[in-house]
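Q: What residues go here?
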């Protein structure tokens, strides 16, 4: 993204760096949670199950969730998780890039 934005010869490089950080951080957060949310659902079910004799294998738990509720059950809580992930990860990337710039650390 930086190479495409820099090619336009923008006079607002700091503003474009922040915009790029917001977009890439938000996309990274969404991508991460789309990949791991089913395992997080299984983990939550294992942690909150009062029956100590139930399966502790997250893949078995996830299989039973899928059989019972389908793919929608595996992604329970996706909307609030993504809603939280976008600003949190965007802020993390922007802060990281700002810290690197303030410390004078260059990266390619």
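A:
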């Amino acid at each position: 993204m930086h190479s495409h934005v820099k090619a336009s010869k923008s006079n607002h490089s700091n503003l474009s760096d922040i915009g790029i950080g917001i977009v890439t951080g938000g996309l990274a957060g969404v991508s991460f949670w789309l990949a791991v949310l089913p395992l997080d659902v299984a983990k939550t079910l294992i942690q909150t199950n009062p029956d100590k004799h139930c399966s502790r294998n997250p893949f078995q738990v996830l299989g039973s969730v899928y059989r019972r509720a389908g793919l929608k059950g595996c992604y329970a809580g996706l909307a609030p998780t993504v809603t939280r992930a976008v600003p949190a990860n965007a802020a993390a990337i922007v802060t990281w890039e700002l810290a690197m710039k303030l410390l004078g650390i260059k990266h390619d």
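A: Context that may help when evaluating the design: Helices lie at 2-7, 13-48, 58-74, 78-103. The two ends are 12 Å apart (CA to CA).
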